[in-house]
Write a sequence for this structure.
């Protein structure tokens, strides 16, 4: 019989208890624009008119992501309802959906730890470098901070006595936590070289100095 196909979506819930509104799940019918499912728990949104005899529906589903969405495995149930206009008969089919949301961005640095050393006289500076890889779904800003002084056990080097750069031309001093400094901004995936240097080593006591430098990616203005 001729009728109408409608659908509704349950709450989108993760095993950790995080909930996404069901209107975040959108659908496209036969290549048309994406439409959100009804936000009403008992509301069915009409998808299309169904002629009599056999009928196939090409329905594409997508989730509208936000930077604040917690990672995890989310589940939802989409309920399809066919209702005949002739005798008001109803056929209901349910579709279980699993949605995996991963971290929106990841940052890795190689090598880890990074070593800074003197290249030999007459150069008195201390140098080092590392490759930083950012993997992201959205625009991002890469930031750097130093969580503590660099210590040899008997002497320290302050964070601002070490500088960083991505081009070996423009240098910035490291900032001590909780302050962060901008390294680079970009979109999607990127690998960049991060250079470090310190002025003359002569004022410092000889020894192996260790410390912690943190890198993080935060959502960019886009």
């Amino acid at each position: 019989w001729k009728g109408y196909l409608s659908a509704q979506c349950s709450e989108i819930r993760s095993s950790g208890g995080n909930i996404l509104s069901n209107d975040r799940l959108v659908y496209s019918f036969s290549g048309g624009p994406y439409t959100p499912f009804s936000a009403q728990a008992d509301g069915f949104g009409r998808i299309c008119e169904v002629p009599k005899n056999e009928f196939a529906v090409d329905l594409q589903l997508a989730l509208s992501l936000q930077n604040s969405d917690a990672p995890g495995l989310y589940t939802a149930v989409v309920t399809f309802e066919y209702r005949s206009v002739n005798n008001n008969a109803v056929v209901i089919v349910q579709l279980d959906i699993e949605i995996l949301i991963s971290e929106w961005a990841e940052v890795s640095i190689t090598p880890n730890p990074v070593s800074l050393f003197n290249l030999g006289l007459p150069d008195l500076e201390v140098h080092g470098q590392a490759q930083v890889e950012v993997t992201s779904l959205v625009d991002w800003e890469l930031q750097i901070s130093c969580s503590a002084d660099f210590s040899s056990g008997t002497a320290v080097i302050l964070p601002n006595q070490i500088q960083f750069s991505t081009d070996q031309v423009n240098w910035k001093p490291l900032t001590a936590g909780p302050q962060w400094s901008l390294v680079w901004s970009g979109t999607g995936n990127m690998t960049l070289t991060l250079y470090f240097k310190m002025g003359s080593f002569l004022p410092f006591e000889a020894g192996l100095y260790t410390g912690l430098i943190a890198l993080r990616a935060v959502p960019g203005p886009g």
Observations:
- Residues 3-101 form a domain with the Immunoglobulin-like fold (CATH 2.60.40).
- The chain has no helices and 20 strands.
- The chain has a mean pLDDT of 86.
- The chain has two domains: 3-101, 105-219.
